[in-house]
Design brief:
By secondary structure, this protein is mainly alpha-helical. The chain has one domain. The chain is built from five helices and two strands, in the order ααββααα. It has a two-stranded parallel ribbon. α1 runs antiparallel to α2, α3 runs antiparallel to α4 and α3 packs across α5. 17% of the residues are buried.
């Protein structure tokens, strides 16, 4: 396993920020039980989807192996959702900052290129080693 890099730490922090942003939106936009469900439930759902669908050679074991380009779409969707949630909750500057930082992170870390060029053809869905 490769050693963790600084960009891996930044990626992890951005993922947490994305999940919290979704919960923040739920908390600020709703009342009563819906507030609690959206503030705590939506981040759990988003995090579960993020963690379940992976490509081979990503950190952690892939529960469900998906093509790299589909994973890229998933990651873009999650971060776009987080940016929209912040913006919709009245946090325009943090939304813009998150968008810019995510883009810079994906370029500097090579994540964008990795997911665009990753070959997962022939990967067994339950055993990526075969």
């Amino acid at each position: 396993m490769d050693s963790l890099k600084f960009t891996d730490l930044i990626q992890f922090v951005l993922e947490i920020v994305a999940f919290v942003s979704v919960g923040y939106w739920g908390w600020t936009q709703h009342e009563g039980i819906v507030r609690v469900l959206t503030a705590f439930g939506l981040p759990v759902v988003v995090a579960a989807v993020w963690g379940i669908f992976r490509v081979p050679n990503d950190p952690g074991k892939a529960t469900v192996v998906i093509p790299a380009k589909l994973r890229l779409v998933l990651e873009i969707a999650v971060f776009a959702l987080a940016v929209w949630c912040l913006y919709a909750a009245g946090q325009r500057n943090p939304a813009i900052a998150l968008a810019v930082i995510v883009i810079v992170q994906y370029v500097i870390s090579g994540r964008f290129v990795f997911l665009l060029t990753h070959k997962s053809v022939g990967v067994h869905p339950t055993n990526p080693d075969h």
